[in-house]
Amino acid sequence: MLFRRKSALLRHTEVPACMAENFILSGYRIPNCSFGEYLGSAFQPTNETGNFWTHFLATFVFAFYFLELFWWENSAPVLDPFYYPFWSYFIGVCGLLVVSSMAHLFNSMSIVVREICFFVDYGTISAYTVGSSLAYFYYINPRTGMASDGSVPWLGNTPLTSMDESKELAPTLDALSPSAAWYPAWLLPVGSALARVGWWFEALYVPTACLLALVCTLACCCSRQQWPRYRYIIRTLVFLLPFVVVSTPVFYKLYMGACSSSLALFFTRHCLWLLVSGVFNICKIPERFSPGKFDIWGHSHQWFHFFTFMSILDELHMIKEAMKGLEGDLPRPPTFLATFGVMLVLLLGLAAIVLWFAMKVHAVERKPKSQ
């Protein structure tokens, strides 16, 4: 095996500049080797070994805690529509973890392969945010906080009006939600500001998450060719906006005091882990203070992977906690098209972006050879 001996690895001055990482001086694999050799490098001490395992093993940990929900007493069948958003979230998270680990395992094959690996990686991060938005929309939807007396805690405990009055106040309701058994709280006379917030959430929340996912993928892919000095800051901050937008229902419930203590705790930890992971990714700690010492184990990207997974794990616990409180009852029943269909359309859009950037990279790398 080519990577069996540490002496077979390269230093940062021996690899193309685009393959070298800041403050990582050694442990680079030899480019242009076979698929099997890079596969075997997962078991060798290279500077990508930890990056691979921190997300590859995390996939199985996540799957265990995800499937744990179906072992609960009186849980619905696995393929019950109630779980469609949950399975969409599962697709997003597992796609992120598996693609990330594979990208780090095979990114040394060539410059073109390296770029494509990370283009796909950015796409799966975006897909994860949309998977989260679907879970939030159905399970942490502010409307799930309706009390048994007909009050709506997230709208300041305003009692619901009668059906007839609601129809008079919202003549377009039937067109917006013809299958609803009761009229959405946001169409009741609780103030124009709250009505606008409710309309945005019901009509634009998921589409906005999808649009941001596409824009963020475009920005991250562009950062590999432009603004190289600030690429880590750009990539970290670019995904901050989707986090804020996707977390809107949680922020709103926290503001209105409609969150349980356990859900609030999980969300707080989710945010904390994300913050810590961003600090490691931007500041390049600890290798910045001792270049060469953390080349194989303990460098910032490994910690970035660890803390992002801890964030995802607490998010999973938060979603499960919200689902437990619903007891199988949702204000808006999920459908196959509104969950898996959304994910499929999004993935097609992300694939188009990745393909476009991959063709550009291939053309750039091929151009000098033809001259």
TrEMBL record:
Its main location: membrane. It is found in: Membrane. This is Membrane progesterone receptor epsilon. Signal peptide: none annotated. Keywords: Membrane, Metal-binding, Transmembrane, Transmembrane helix, Zinc. Zn(2+) binds at H301, H305. It is a multi-pass membrane protein. The chain crosses the membrane at residues 52-72, 84-106, 118-139, 197-220, 232-252, 339-359. GO terms for cellular component: membrane. It comes from Pleurodeles waltl. It comes from the Eukaryota. Belongs to the ADIPOR family. One of its GO terms (molecular function) is metal ion binding.
